[in-house]
Amino acid sequence: MTVLVGVISQKGGVGKSTLARLIAREYAAAGWDVKIADLDISQGTSTDWKQRRSVNGIQPEIAVEPFRTVAQALKHASVYDLMVMDGPPHSMQGTLEIARASDLLVLPTGLSLDDLKPSVLLAHELVNAKIPTEKIIFALCRVGDRENEIEEGRSYIHKAGYVTVVGSIPEKTAYRQASDNGRAVSEVTFPTLKQRAEQVAQGIIDLLSKQES
């Protein structure tokens, strides 16, 4: 049975595609047959990333395909072990469709209130639409180096009633360069940054395993 993970946000620029690629890469490296459904047709960032990955011959291979609708993506899901849906921003209907189909929903957010508040409001809207709270997790992305600021962001989310993934992904040039070369953030050459990305990925994997058990 295909595992479905939705990575969603109503905002752009908070790390949605970064997380989708990270999740897909870690499962693919473990031998899973993985596909990213790129539902952000207007940007197509995951689709472009796949092309760069192919040109540079990076393994493991990760299938990426653009889809205009969630229904179209789901028709292709059954032949894969895992489908990661890179959701469209500014589309509550598409987000709800992803939420209903997914085993786990990952909401990336930065640490500013401009990021945190709409992310939590989105989670509330999903819960109001009968999406189980336990399916919703937050991942802290593009954070700075101040640990107290990271913990304040985490506390904001916890007080709203939601779980955060262990670890965080900082805003670093090495991650941007990795993406430009078709790599996931766990494929950087810097050990500390690689470890931070892997920690977030493992946190998501652990939470997904709980959902399946």
Provide an overview of this structure.
- By secondary structure, the chain is of the alpha/beta class.
- The chain has eight helices and eight strands.
- Strands 1, 2, 3, 4, 5, 6, 7 and 8 form an eight-stranded parallel beta sheet that branches.
- Strand 6, helix 6 (147-159) and strand 7 form a beta-alpha-beta unit.
- Helix 1 crosses helix 8.
- The chain is globular and about 45 Å long.
- The model has no long low-confidence stretch (mean pLDDT 95).
Descriptive terms for the model:
single chain; 213 residues; alpha/beta; 8-stranded parallel beta sheet; 8 helices; 8 strands; globular
Q: How are the SSEs ordered, and which strands pair?
A:
Layout lengths: L2 E5 L8 H14 L4 E5 L6 H11 L7 E4 L3 H6 L6 E5 L5 H10 L2 E6 L3 H16 L7 E8 L3 H13 L3 E2 L4 E2 L2 H8 L10 H22 L1
Parallel strand pairs: 1-4, 1-5, 2-3, 2-4, 5-6, 6-7, 6-8
Helix pairs in contact: 1-8
Short description:
With 213 residues, this protein is an alpha/beta fold. It is built from 8 helices and 8 strands. The protein has helices at 16-29, 45-55, 70-75, 92-101, 113-128, 147-159, 173-180, 191-212, and strands at residues 3-7, 34-38, 63-66, 82-86, 104-109, 136-143, 163-164, 169-170.
